[in-house]
Amino acid sequence: MRLLYRYGLTALFFGLLLLPYVSQATHVRAGEITTRRLSATSLSYEVTLTAYYDERTGAAAARDANSYTFCFGDNTTESVNRQLPIRFINGRTSSINIYRTTHTFPGPGVYTISVQIANRNAGTINLPPPATSDNLTFFVSTTILIPTNLGLNSTPVMLNPPLDSARVGQRFCHNPAAYDADGDSLAYRLSKPQEGLPNSCRSRVIPAYQDPTVYSTTSETGGAPSFTIDSRTGQLCWDSPNRIGQFNFAFIVEEWRNGVLIGEVTRDMQIVVVDQPNKRPLIAGASLCVEAGTLIQQPITATDPDGQRVIINAYGGPLNVLADGSPLPASLSVPQEYARLINGGTPLAQPGTATFYWQTNCNQVRNQPYDITLKASDVPPRGTTTLVSFATLSVKIIAPAVRNLTGRASAVAGGRAIQINWAAYSCGRIVDVGLGPDTTKLIIYRREGSCSNIPSVSCTTGVPAGLGFTEVGRVPYTATTFTDTTALRRGVVYSYIIVARNPGDVNNGGLSLPSQQVCLELPRLTPVLTQVTVDSTNETRGRITLRWARPLDLRAGDLGAPYQYRIQRATGLSGTAFTTIGTVSTNLDRNVVDTVYVDQGTSTSALNTTANAYRYQIEFFYTDPTTRQLTSLGVADAASSVRLSTAPANRSVVLSWQTNTPWSNDNQTHIVYRSRSGPNGPFNRIADVSVQGSGTYTFTDTGNDTYVADGNTSRQLTADSSYCYRVTTQGRYTDTRLAVFGILKNDSQVSCAMPTDTTRPCPVNLGLDSLNCASLSPESQCNLSSFTNKLRWRQTSGVNCDPNVASYKIYYGRYSQDTPALLTSVNAPTTTFDHSSLTTVAGCYYVTAVNARGQESVPSNRVCNDACPYFALPNVFTPNGDGKNDTFQPMRCARAVESVTFVVFNRYGTKVYETTTAVLNWDGRASDGTELPSGLYYYQATVRYAVLDRNTPAQVFKGYVQILREGVSMR
Q1: In terms of DSSP bridges, do strands 614-623 and 563-571 run parallel, antiparallel, or are they unpaired?
Q2: What's the first-to-final CA gap in the chain, in angstroms?
Q3: What is the superkingdom listed in this entry's lineage (predicted)?
Q4: Domains and CATH numbers, the chain
Q5: Whose CB among 284, 535, 594, 896 lies 3.0–4.6 Å from 543's, allowing a Cys bridge?
């Protein structure tokens, strides 16, 4: 009987065991909770528990499961009845049971909804011991976030029942076919089955739960076993089970919107592992991206390694069917029409092919793809368990492009405008996103100066990146025209595209494909400025010459004559306060020179070209034939003079100049002139500068002259001279229609500057008369209390230093460890220095040179002198007052002694005298002043020398001395 139970469990699930096994207390196999908000104006939600019961071992208990208690996470509960009729699946071995209610939450917040059911079904291998797994309760929960601005929202629903079969030694995969009607992003992660705690809404992970890999030895290909879930697709795979029986595990589906986690649904599911020779079928997925309105007819093919027939099924929101086969609620449905799987659910001779058929429409546009879970089941011989495989068909539906874009440009007395037109947009719609209605908008983008082809990138919506398009307007989707009047300039090619923004949030909204571009240019009905050049630089009598061309697209007789040019001026490179400074009448006679004007200022407005740049525009007038009044036709694009600035630098001058013109001065050669004689010249051409596209151009003059046709003026710039400059810019119109004007040359004003000079003097080479201690006799430097170090140096030269020196600075440090500090300075041309009144010759020196501008050279070489210490003591003296040998002092003379610590002991070791002094001169008395008697005394002299090394240790002398007084024999 034990054997019958062990091997009969798997067969029981698949129809091999005819005798039923009945239990009154065990029945739950799997389940999850989902929610759906019913109104944007209230917090009422439809809450659904979908539970899967074991109809073989727990049919009786399943029949009794008429209601369960829902915990809503707001401290309220409700007993909810089961909906009838019950739907049976898997050959009536299992049933799907629906418990549904409506609950209104008290306010925004985070709520965890949960249900616990007694009990699970028996025999679950990884909830040991399997024989008593029916004593464990079943617990699932779902967490939802209700913010104040979320609007309508539904948790994802799982359309594939959580009941499948696996084979020992073979990789098993399951896909829940989760579908989110709101288009929110879904993510998946593994969890663990839980059990409810008695008499509460709380739970815990089942302590006895074992990860499925415990029941795996190797993977299908011989590698390490694994149990994983794909975080994006939800594909859960176990590679590979090694034991037959039923297993439970859990996973969580996360719901994300705009980067915020707004919900989590936990599914607890069960599979059965069998040991049979059958191999699972194979099925391939695909990814599609189509414009709304496309008819999808995608073939789906499945094969079976055993040559058996296959059944192809599909699960997903577009199919409009829940896991129990009932229709999706209207709020969860994909807008009509629904997809279908032709030849789906029918045994097919393999390779079997079904066709996913979907007539898409504009209401189905959204950012997230529709993931259709494809399931292939084999049809094995009777008595063999059916195995399955899964794949994903990902379908992204994007909004189509706006079609038939055309346009025209105008530039008349009323102003400049470009009007674009297009066919009525085919995918405009109005939706209620829960916070009010939203409609499709058409966004108009423009770029300047290019009509190059836009590369087509499949399934890439929105404005093409990196091509310079900027938004210039938005209109309702019902509009078919737009007029652009924003900062339009003549001579510029404008390219336009349109992108539709679909209604809804970022999930269900999104952008359409970009339209084809239309390129337009304003007609030339106004003059074209070609020159603004500075003729004279002066604070009150400056002069600037203007030249322009007649309106290119206007001919005599087009409008009433006579015509008039009005010259207008504003101060500054970007000045806008234009005032009329002169007029020129014309009949557009090409034989008459009437397109030149010299601005020399007015009696009330001097032209200060020294301090200012000036900007000009030419307004063109025609004579109205009716009123005979002059009427403005338009204004030429303004152009400024060239503004040059000069700044001093080290033995150089930095030039920078700017322009603000309708023609481009970029990527051209500009000419630099220099005068060494002042602002009135003469000027020599010194450099041709190739400038790049920046709008501000620079050049550094170091004194070189690279243009020698007018004489070579190359020589070093000096800090005591002023240099003056003028720059000629060269530019051209980028508009091909204006290319006839060729290179446009304009002169800047004159600007002068005096360079600085931060060049250091050349360094010096330093020498020092130092002592040779080996050559000194004991009497050398005897009785000296003051010493002198003699320094001498030599000036060096070089190409990168200044040979002109005004003074020298001498730096001194007493010890070799010191950083020398400034001692004194001497004026050039002196190159020697005696450092006198020193108590020791020990010390280090370096010297720097200083020029007239105060720049100091790098330090010279460092030189040092060291003392030659000498110290010796006698062994007898006679302190008897006869003036001979009356004191105990160093023999001959001591040299470089800084201090002596002298201690005297009598023959018994008693200290009788101690002193620290710079000069040792002991008179034979004790420390208290009393005369010491004649006799032998011992001493220790610790001598510290005034040498170069601060850390030189003291020298210790130990010896004896005989004191001889009158009447005492010297023997």
Answers
A1: antiparallel
A2: 131
A3: Bacteria
A4: 2-274 (2.60.40.60), 282-398 (2.60.40.10), 406-521 (2.60.40), 528-639 (2.60.40.10), 643-753 (2.60.40.10), 764-865 (2.60.40.10), 876-963 (2.60.40)
A5: 535
